[in-house]
Amino acid sequence: MNLDRRAFLGAGAGAFVCTLAGQQIASDGPEPDLEKLSAGIEVPPKVRASARQNPLTPAQTPTPAPGGTRREYWIVATKARWNIVPTKRDEMMNKKITGSTKFTGWFYREYTENFGAPKGPVSMPGPVLEAETGDTLVVNFRNDLKIPVTMHPHGVQYTPEMDGAYKGQFTDPGGFVQPGKTFQYVWDCKEGTEGVWPYHDHGPMDPMPLYKGLFGFINVRKKGAPRPDVDHYLVFHQITTATSGLARGFQCINGRAYTGNTPTLRAKVGQRVAQHITAMDVNFHTYHLHGHRWKNAAGKVVDNETLGPADSLTVEFTEDNPGRWFYHCHVFSHLHEGMSGWYIVEP
Ligand SMILES: [Cu+2]
């Protein structure tokens, strides 16, 4: 085990988050050198063998169900500079946020067919992968980062080869996509997989790439079901000092912290609104929305629901209350470090 003094103090004093290549990482400690750490990880045998062949695997494609569609995506893992608090203000407390808020984030970025060109700017979360029950999701993934990363889905149906998870010596090629390489994931959205699910990196450096922004949503809609008028997607997570190298940590929604920087959600009275929330760190969070209420899974009317790590929640209601509202995590320490936003309803 090779710890420099700063890393050792960080690991000893801080909140433990993971052990990578034998090094303990503290979430509030210094930023680890992931490239250096990952260089010490042995390339698993099945990955070594596949690297000599065409790495974009000929799909062992599950056929879409009758009437189903093959939904193909082209996604690149990439890095870009990212500002956590672009306005430098917290509109909730009407207060200035001082100090540096920029770091190098990691992103799943959607491209046009055959990795032609980016479809838009980088985003946190990555693109929403949309399907209906009976469809097959085909995700062509290229890793432009300098360490092995993956895409691991929740909720949908897949074989172990399509798991996108590092499993030591048992790792399949999709669980260790090396720098510059591609892999084709094929996931089945059969009946019973409907819902909104997270996807995220599950490679050998998991969860640090996820902390840097490698996460997104899959939305499998039930075929034929009426669509909401508005879908909102929110990820509750933290960007820690070990993630960013910044002097302090932030409690974030979609990579941004503090009201006015986090997504400002919008809807109109009369619209059917669906809000999808997941949590992606070591904490429990709650989703609280002012001026509104909905039925939870047990049928009880609530306005605040708890999310554990990687839980996903869909809140649905018909909008009936115009005005400027807050949505936020009700863990006060999270709220006051940035985990809140505006929800603006027009009459
Ligand atoms: Cu929280």
Automatic annotation (TrEMBL):
Does Cell membrane show up as a keyword for this record?
Answer: no
The organism is: Paraconexibacter algicola
The record ties this protein, via PROSITE patterns, to:
MULTICOPPER_OXIDASE1 (PS00079), MULTICOPPER_OXIDASE2 (PS00080)
Know the name of this protein? Multicopper oxidase
Compositionally biased, Low complexity: which spans? 57-68
Q: Which Pfam families match?
A: Cu-oxidase_2 (PF07731), Cu-oxidase_3 (PF07732)
Q: Which UniProt keywords apply?
A: Copper, Metal-binding, Oxidoreductase
Q: Does the keyword Cell inner membrane apply?
A: no
Start and end residues of each Plastocyanin-like domain: 123-223, 242-346
Can you name one GO molecular function term for this protein?
oxidoreductase activity
Which N-terminal stretch is annotated as signal sequence? none
